[in-house]
Design goal:
By secondary structure, the protein is of the alpha+beta class. It has a 6-stranded mixed beta barrel with strand order 2-3-8-5-7-6. The chain is built from 17 helices and 10 strands. Helix 2 packs across helix 13 (311-342) and helix 2 packs antiparallel against helix 16. It has 2 domains: 4-57 and 260-412, no CATH class; 72-246, no CATH class. Strand 6 (163-174) and strand 7 (177-191) form a beta hairpin.
């Protein structure tokens, strides 16, 4: 499509000469603008992907993929349908759960927590807990045992083996009024999953102990069902609903967290549009630099036309010049974006050591490190859009160059 002569002439036009210094500066700014836009966009999208992936990983490991709850806040006949649900296709295991809000107190310090009563075997199935147990173990998870998060342990100053007092607002009713129910538990293990809220709020106790403490003998708060494939929800939900009696309701992890994921998707789309403006501004710089180049090269264009160069050849020369800037900027930006994303955690750690400040607070962003996940189809999409915008930006200046009247230019010279 493009001849060697056209590539040679376009290359000469792009090269810097002192008399064309300003044009060259604009062209360089165009290249840097595209590089900055493409690189930034890849980094932003990768961070958004990483945040979503880490959030999904935490949610799916901590909570059931499908949950069953009752309209009266307790389920007393769960044994009747659990065995039937185990036979449903895609079901991995089922956890009867007791869940309640409590106050945890130790050595004059107190924190609000969410206690979860669970069987030991089911707790062992939750790899996000067992694989991230940093102190203690779940071998003695019975009686008054507790497994707590690292943030809660740090906040209260609790170690493995310490006694932690749990206080329930639903206490005993006496002639003097309601008295909060309290009980001392022993910390048997401390986990750290990396999600601030989970490490800060959740504690686990044996199911039988929770039933006694919450006065829910032979009852549970909910049933959590874990699937072999968490994304395949429709058929298992339909089968589970057909098994349950009236008064029980089913919801899945996507429904429970729909507002979070919707907000993250909106944020991702907005950031995409904002950063795309950088590429558009750089594209306008390509237009400006090419128009100035066309004006500066009018005499050369006129000479080329008089020795037989066609309008198409002139147009292709400037198309090559403009798209070369766009291609170079896109390629360098894509490489920079991928490399920076790959070493993002190391860069974050280096900057935090250098400044002595934390740029990614777990209290605000839930995670202690900036997660990222490169989706190469997004890299290709961003690069393709950048190349397309760069190509479109060259059309008008190239068309203008092709329409140069050699007779008029030579007469004025």
């Amino acid at each position: 499509m493009f001849s060697k002569v056209e590539w040679l002439i376009a290359g000469r036009y792009i090269r810097t000469r002192k008399s064309e210094g300003f044009i060259s500066v604009v062209a360089w700014f165009s290249l840097l603008g595209i590089m900055l836009g493409v690189g930034t966009l890849i980094i932003v999208l990768s961070v958004q992907n990483g945040l979503r992936a880490e959030l999904v990983k935490s949610l799916l490991g901590f909570k059931g993929h499908i949950s069953i709850v009752s309209n009266d806040e307790s389920i007393s006949d769960y044994d009747k349908f659990i065995d039937s649900i185990r036979l449903v296709n895609n079901v991995a295991y089922i956890d009867p759960i007791i869940e309640g809000q409590l106050l945890a107190s130790y050595d004059s310090r107190s924190e609000g927590i969410l206690a979860r009563g669970i069987n030991k075997d089911n707790l062992e199935n939750r790899l996000i807990i067992t694989e991230n147990l940093i102190k203690g173990s779940i071998d003695n998870f019975s009686g008054d045992a507790l497994i707590i998060g690292s943030r809660l342990a740090s906040s209260l100053g609790v170690k493995v083996g310490d006694k932690l007092t749990l206080i329930s607002p639903q206490g005993l009713i006496t002639v003097f009024g309601s008295v909060p129910r309290t009980k001392a538990f022993t910390v048997k293990g401390i986990f750290e999953v990396g999600h601030y809220q989970f490490d800060r709020i959740f504690i686990f106790m044996p199911l039988k102990t929770a039933q006694n403490f919450f006065r829910m003998k032979d009852q549970i708060s909910k049933v959590e069902i874990f699937l072999q494939d968490p994304d395949e929800l429709i058929l298992p939900k339909r089968s589970i609903k057909s098994i349950l009696r009236s008064g029980l309701f089913v919801y899945d992890w996507q429904q429970e967290n729909s507002s979070i994921f919707s907000a993250m998707q909106v944020q991702k789309n907005v950031m995409f549009l904002i950063v795309m403006l950088i590429i558009l501004v750089a594209a306008f710089n390509i237009i400006s630099s090419l128009i100035m180049m066309v004006k500066d090269k009018e005499s050369a264009i006129a000479i080329l036309r008089t020795i037989g160069a066609s309008r198409g050849m002139i147009m292709r020369i400037f198309l090559i010049a403009g798209t070369s800037i766009g291609f170079a900027g896109t390629l360098l930006g894509a490489l920079a974006g991928v490399v920076i994303t790959y070493y993002l955690v190391d860069i974050q750690s280096f900057l935090e050591r250098l400044t002595g400040e934390s740029f990614f607070s777990a209290e605000v962003f839930f995670f202690s490190q900036l997660p990222s996940k490169i989706e190469f189809y997004e890299v290709l999409m961003v690069s393709g859009l950048s190349l397309m915008i760069s190509f479109l930006a060259t059309l008008y200046p190239s068309f203008k160059a092709a329409r140069t009247d050699p007779a008029e230019v030579l007469r004025n010279d």
